[in-house]
Amino acid sequence: MDIMFMNLAHRGASHYAPENTFAAFYKGLEMGANGLETDLRRTNDGVIILQHDEQLDRNTNGNGKLSDYTWREVAQLDAGSWFSDFYQGEPLVTLTSFFRHFARRPVLLALELKEPGMEKEVSEMIAVWKLYERVTITAFDFEVLQELRRRDDRVRLGYLTYGWDSKVRDQLAGIRAVQFCPKADLVTVGLVNEVKQAGYEIRAWGIRKEEQMMSCLQASIDGMTINYPDRLTEALKASGGSVN
């Protein structure tokens, strides 16, 4: 896969619309993102949906654990009103529906597995949709990444972590990962150079301030997961870069 700068809308353009909803995903693409990042969890009856939190309280009108509800129950929840009245009634999204909307578009997709147990189904879906070149699966749980690699030799893997050392390098090599994903405030020119020299892409997360975004750009990072992709699009244009 040819490396392009990754401007990934974090849970969609989540600064402007309710996270992990179609409203946020489409807004992210309208704002110049060339990719979408999202989170995966399971309902009680095994349906994989796009949801960051284990609990439903923060970003829906539901309460308690997602895993206590069936998809039929979760599908009735309002995932937009917490953000603003404009998005009242915005529903949660299944991974199947997400692929139906975006698998045929020329966009990058980053899927973070928030819990174990989905590896088989997610890897099978990537194969069915023929998304090996455009999907990167990430996790903080290294055992999840190991299981994904055991099941599929072709899937792109990225490790979400807080540091870079010999142990992390060995872990990346052991699962034949392609991407190292550090927290943005850890990114330096030296780190980016070392990661690239080791043969990995480097994509930052946890960007809360524009200063962090600019610092990552100046370090020549390969991409970012960002809540406001429009600002990154403008910064890339101003610097002579491009997301295309």
UniProtKB/TrEMBL annotation:
It holds the Pfam family GDPD. PROSITE patterns: GP_PDE. Residues 5-236 form the GP-PDE domain. It comes from the Bacteria. One of its GO terms (molecular function) is glycerophosphodiester phosphodiesterase activity. InterPro entries: GP_PDE_dom (IPR030395), PLC-like_Pdiesterase_TIM-brl (IPR017946). This is Glycerophosphoryl diester phosphodiesterase. It comes from Paenibacillus konkukensis. The lineage of its organism: Bacteria, Bacillati, Bacillota, Bacilli, Bacillales. The gene is ugpQ_6.
